[in-house]
Amino acid sequence: MKVLVTGAAGFIGFHLIKALLETDLSGKEHFIVGIDNLNDYYDTGLKAERLEILNSVSTPENFTFIKLDLADRDAMSNLFSDYQFDTVINLGAQAGVRYSIENPNAYIDSNVVGFVNILEGCRHHNIKHLIYASSSSVYGMNIKQPFTTADCVDFPISLYAATKKSNELMAHSYSHLYNIPTTGLRFFTVYGPYGRPDMAYFSFTKKILAGEPIDIYNNGDMQRDFTYIDDIVKGVIRIMNRIPSPQYPTITTATAPYKIYNIGNNQPVTLRRFISAIEDACGKKAQENLLPMQAGDVPITYADIDELVDDIGFKPETSIEDGIEKFVAWYKQYYSV
């Protein structure tokens, strides 16, 4: 199977490719092409380290990396023509809710233009399954908990969320018009080793170990459905072989081989418990700087994962204490703290 993974040097893309390579050491089951534009949204050294690890556990027969921007229409078209992929896993995107306020064009280029280029490649090259990253951010400030994929998500409160919602809409149109099987994955606050430095758990760990104060928004009155990276990867790998069939949603006569899943821990964690887990793993107490809620942020994320469990028989199970302990151990080793 020829697999394209976008965002190969990113947090989730790196872990997914590594897991696929390590479970297919013979190189006979998968040939993986990873692409990434290696932008400087965060430390490019971390991205380079991820790629070094992927190269160390692969051979030219089962993995190749290409530096490429999703928004480059001609390059993307040539990529699909050259490799004739079976499966595409689109994890490449401009991430971050808060940064979308500062640099909206980056989100349109990567998350909208880039995603159209992915869809066009799938359309013209008989892709058997497109899996793409959506986000829990699409739920915005929905009142009903937990969030289900049947909920209305028409009220995004950040441009990042709006681009992810647009991905789901565009995927449905291509599934309907061209019979392309597509599966969207609404990830809920993914964390773990080699994670993104812009995420709260990363910056909290850095500052607590350095004895610096941490900024706590909304006075800490927030909850998140934190999902450990290994659980995310296991879910994605199982979904690779779960190709959606055409179905009739109850409110339309349109049919499409289209599916959306939540992937979350199904156990929202208070920010206080989250900070305590980091303090315990670091062996130090945090100095707190309390601040109001930031624009584009939400008070709670909580995933209903019944469909995920029913369809692929998988449920994330890593507790926040176990996951944070693993992350902090990695952080101390990686940064020689």
Question: What report would you give on this structure?
Answer:
This protein has 337 residues and is of the alpha/beta class. Helix content is 41%, strand content 17%. It has helices at residues 11-22, 44-56, 73-83, 99-102, 104-124, 159-178, 200-210, 229-240, 271-282, 306-312, 320-334, and strands at 2-6, 31-36, 63-67, 87-90, 129-135, 182-187, 190-191, 213-217, 223-224, 227-228, 258-263, 269-270, 287-291. The strands form 4 sheets. The chain has a 7-stranded parallel sheet with strand order 3-2-1-4-5-6-11, with helices on both faces. It has a two-stranded parallel ribbon with strand order 7-10. It has a two-stranded parallel ribbon with strand order 8-13. Helix 1 crosses helix 8, helix 5 (104-124) packs parallel to helix 6 and helix 7 packs across helix 9 (271-282). It is globular, with a radius of gyration of 19 Å.
Overall outline: globular
Give the neighbour order of strands across the main sheet: 3-2-1-4-5-6-11
Mean pLDDT: 93
Biggest β-sheet description: 7 strands, parallel
Radius of gyration using CA atoms only = 19 Å
- Uncertain runs with pLDDT below 50, 5 residues or more? none
**Which range best describes the helical content: under 10%, 10-25%, 25-40%, 40-55%, 55-70% or over 70%?**
40-55%
- The termini sit apart by 41 Å
Query: In sequence order, what are the helices and strands, one letter per element?
Result: EHEHEHEHHEHEEHEEEHEEHEHH
List the helices and strands and how they pair.
Elements: E1 2-6, H1 11-22, E2 31-36, H2 44-56, E3 63-67, H3 73-83, E4 87-90, H4 99-102, H5 104-124, E5 129-135, H6 159-178, E6 182-187, E7 190-191, H7 200-210, E8 213-217, E9 223-224, E10 227-228, H8 229-240, E11 258-263, E12 269-270, H9 271-282, E13 287-291, H10 306-312, H11 320-334
